[in-house]
Amino acid sequence: MDFIKEQLDGYGMNVETIGYLSEIIMVVLIAVVCILANFITQKIVLKTIIHFIHKNRYTWDSIVVEKKVFHKLSHLVPAIIIYSSASIFSAYQTLIEKAALTYMIIVTITVFNALLNALEAIYHSYEVSKIKPIKGYIQVAKIFLFIIGGIVVISNLIDQSPLIILSGLGALSAVLMLVFKDSILGLVAGVQLSSNDMVRLGDWIEMPKYNADGDVVDITLNTVKVMNFDKTITMIPSYALISDSFKNWRGMQASGGRRIKRSVYIDTNSISFCTKDMIEEFKKIHYLTEYIKTIVGEINAYNMERQINTESNVNGRQLTNVGVFRVYIHQYLRNHPKIHKDMTLIVRQLAPGDNGLPLEIYAFSNDTNWGVYESIQADIFDHIFAAAPTFGLRTFQNPTGHDIAHFERDTSAMES
Question: What domains sit in the chain, N to C, each tagged with a CATH number?
C-alpha cells in the first residue's frame, strides 16, 4: 500500500485522491491474486490430486472426489488470502475479517457435509450396508453439523462466544424438542431397527395400516421408503415400524422356499367307498401302484383276521375315493420338481362346511420368485382339478346361471 501511494504521489495527486485510488488498486490486486490462487488450486493442485487418486487401487478416495470434497475445500484459498489482507484496510479490517471468516466457516460446513455424503456412499458400497444402514445416523450428524455451524457463524457476526448462544438454547429446549420430535423419534427407531436387524434395504415388508406391500428402497432418519409391487411409493415413519406390527418376508426369501396354502373343495355327494373296478383303475396310476398293492393287502389281512363280513362296505376297513385322492396328491407333490423336499408337505382334510370338504395343500415351492411361484401353484392346482374326476370326485362350485338353466331344461324335458 505504501509503495502504491509513493508511486501515485509522484504524479502530483492530492492526498485524498491518492488514498481512494490506492485502495481501489489494492482491491484489484488482491482480487487478481485470489483469481490466480483459485486457478492454480483448481487447475493444477486439484487435478494433480485427482490424477493420483484415479491411478491408485483404492475406490473409496474416488468416491471422495465424486462427492467434490476437494473441490469445496479449494474455495478456502481465496477466503484465506482476503482474511490475511484485511489489515491493509484498517478502516474496514473488522468487517472484512468477519465476512471472510463467515465464508470460511460456511465452506468448512459444506466440506464436512460432502465428507459425510462420501462416507455414506463408501459404506453403501459394502454388503453390510444392506443389513446395517447408516443413513439415519448420517442425517443426525448433518443436523448437529448445521446447528453447530450456524451457532459459530452467528457468534462470529455478533462477536460473542459460542458458549453464550449455547446457554441461551437451553431455554429453548422444549421448543427444539417439539421441532425435532420426528427426528428424535426417528433416531431412536433407527437404532432399534438396526440393532435388532428388523429391516434391511431390499426387504419385502407388508404393512396394511399404511397400504405398504413391497420392497424397502431407502431408510432415512424420519422415513422408510417402500416401493409397492404396483410401482407406487409408500413413505412410512421410522418409529411406526417400532410401535406398529409389520410383516417382513426376508425369512421366506432366505429359506429358499415359499409357502403354498390353498384348498380344493370336494362335493361330499361324490365321496364313496372304492369298488373293485376303481381299485384296479387306481393301480394303473403311476404314483399309486405300490400304495394300492400295499394298502389292499393290509386291509384284506385286517378284515380276514377279524372275520369281518365284507359284503357290506361299512364293515371293517375300506378304501374311499377321497382318501386315495388325498394320497395321490401327496405323492404327486413329493415327486414334483418345483416343490421343496426339505420343508413341510401336508395334504389334509379340514372341517366340512357349506362349500363341501376342503382338502388343503400345505407345501413350499423351491423358488421364491413371485412370477415363478404363481406359475408353480397354478400348474399344481390345474392338475388336481383335472385329476379329481378320475377318482369319481367332483369339485364343489356354487350353482351358476348356466347350471340353473340346464336344470330347468332337464325338468321341462322330464315333464313333457
Answer: 2-173 (no CATH), 193-255 (2.30.30.60), 258-272+320-402 (3.30.70.100)
